[in-house]
Amino acid sequence: DPADLATGRGGGVHEASRAAIAARHLRTDRWWLAPALTAAGLLAFVVYSTWRAFSNSDYYAAPYVSPFYSPCLAENCVPMKAGPNWEIFGSWWGLSPALLILIFPLGFRLTCYYYRKAYYRGFWASPPACAVAEPHRKYTGETRFPLVLQNIHRYFFYAALPVAGILTYDTVLAFRDASYAWGHAGLGTVVFLVNIVLIWAYTFSCHSCRHIVGGRLRHFSRHPVRYRLWGLVGRLNDHHMLLAWTSLFSVAFADFYVYLLATGTFDDPRIF
Ligand code: FES
Q1: Any transmembrane segments, and where (predicted)?
Q2: Residue 113 near ligand 1, beta carbon < 6 Å
C-alpha cells in the first residue's frame, strides 16, 4: 500500500528501515520462470510418488524391486525373491509398505538445503527470486517452529546412507534374469545402475556430508585424508542442484520402469 510506504507502516520490505522503493522488483528478465518450473517439477514428483506409494501394487517384477518399496518392512509385501524383505512391522501394518521406508529418503530431500531453497521460492514465494520482494510482511527465516526443524537434515543424512546401501544391493541383484540366474543384465539393470550412481552422487554432495567430512577442523594440514575427501565432496557439492533433480527423476523413472514390467506393459529387453 503506497500510504503505508509513505508512513513506513508497511511490513516486510516496506518497513520504514528499508529503502522506499515502490516497485516490487526492478528485474526485467523472466525471473519467474525458474520458480515456476521448480514448482511444476516438484508438484509432478509429489503427485507421482504419492500415487505410487499408496498404490501398494506393481512394485516387483523379477528380478527388479521398485526403489519406492525397498526394503520391504511389513508382512504384506508381495513375495519377492529379490531385494531385502525384513518383516520388522509384522502383520498389523495394513497400509502400503512403501510408507514405512519412504519417510527417510523423503525427509532427507524435504530438509535438503537445495530443496528448501527450491520450494521456499516455488511454493511460498519467500522470496520468489533474487532481488524480487517477497509478499510476506514478516520474515523469521528458519528460527521458529516448524522451520527450525529443518536442522534435523544432518540426521536424515545418516538415515539416507543405509537406504542408498540397500538400493545398491538391489542393483547388484538386478544382474540376474527373471529366473534368478546370475550374470545377466537387462535394460532395467542399466536403469538401476544409473539411478544408484545418481543417488550416491546426490547423497555425497550433501552440505551436511561436506561438514561431517571436513568441518570443525582447525588445521587441514593435520588431517590430509579428511582434506582430500572434503575436496572431493566439495566438487560434487558444486553440482548439488543438478544431482538433486537428476536423482529425483531417476528414482521415479526406476519405479516407473518396474511398474511397466509388473503390469505387463513392457518386456525388459535383455542386454546379455
Ligand atoms: Fe541437499 Fe543435504 S543439503 S541433501
Answers
A1: 31-51, 92-115, 155-175, 181-202, 242-262
A2: yes
Q: What is the pTM of this model?
A: 0.92
How does pLDDT run across 133-192, given as a tens digit for each residue?
888 888 889 999 999 999 999 999 999 999 999 999 999 999 999 888 999 999 999 999
259: CA distance to ligand 1 center in Å? 28
Interface confidence, given as ipTM, is: 0.99
- Is 42 touching ligand 1 by the criterion CB < 6 Å? no
Ligand 1 pocket test, pick from 106, 112, 243 with the greatest ligand atom count within 8 Å of Cβ, gives 112
* Ligand 1 center from residue 164 Cα (angstroms): 14
The alpha carbon of 154 and the centre of ligand 1 are apart by a number of angstroms equal to 8
